[in-house]
């Protein structure tokens, strides 16, 4: 039977007690009545056979923190932390990769990310239009100077 004490989420304390099932008690009683002393290996097997391993010992969790951040201009980067130690810092990521990953996680996350990417796209399109207009002005000025 396992009993768990209430502790913070990052700390888990498990107590384990071993109880023999009725069939194990009967088996032990029959062995004692028959005078069968058995080998040391059989005694060891019976002791470990009755114990139930805690699932907490089998399941190991790994805590990784992935932080994805972006700018209004649409530049994205990632930081990865493991146990308080930075593994990756400031790794550039394509906006399309961020959008795809967000879509895999949840619709609400995807919608929020898509709105940010859309806003950055509009800003870049506006900047492109400004630059194209300036380029046209510069070309016209060059033509006037050449003639």
Please characterize this protein's 3D structure.
The protein is α+β, with helices and mostly antiparallel strands and 147 residues long. The protein has helices spanning 22-34, 40-49, 55-58, 95-105, 107-146; strands at 2-4, 14-16, 64-70, 76-82, 85-93. The chain has a domain at 65-146. 3% of the residues are buried. The protein has five helices and five strands. Helix 4 runs antiparallel to helix 5 (107-146). The strands form two sheets. It has a three-stranded antiparallel β-sheet with strand order 3-4-5. Residues 1-25 have low confidence and may be disordered. Residues 46-59 have a biased composition (Basic residues). InterPro entries: DUF6319. Residues 1-77 are annotated as: Disordered. Residues 1-21, 28-41 have a biased composition (Polar residues).
Q: What keywords describe this structure?
A:
single chain, 147 residues, alpha+beta, 3-stranded antiparallel β-sheet, 5 helices, DUF6319
Brief sketch in words of this structure:
The protein has 147 residues and is α+β, with helices and mostly antiparallel strands. The protein has a domain at 65-146. The chain has 5 helices and 5 strands, in the order ββαααβββαα.
- H/E element sequence: EEHHHEEEHH
Strand content: 15-25%
| CA-based gyration radius | 34 Å
- Into which percent range does the helicity of residues fall? 40-55%
Q: Find the count of extended strands (DSSP E, 2+ residues).
A: 5
Q: What's the helix count?
A: 5
* Spans of at least 5 consecutive residues with low confidence: 1-25
CA-to-CA gap between the ends? Answer: 96 Å
Q: What's the rounded overall pLDDT mean?
A: 74
What would the principal axes of the Cα set say about the shape? elongated
Major sheet, described briefly?
3 strands, antiparallel
Structural class: alpha+beta
For the biggest β-sheet, the strand order reads 3-4-5
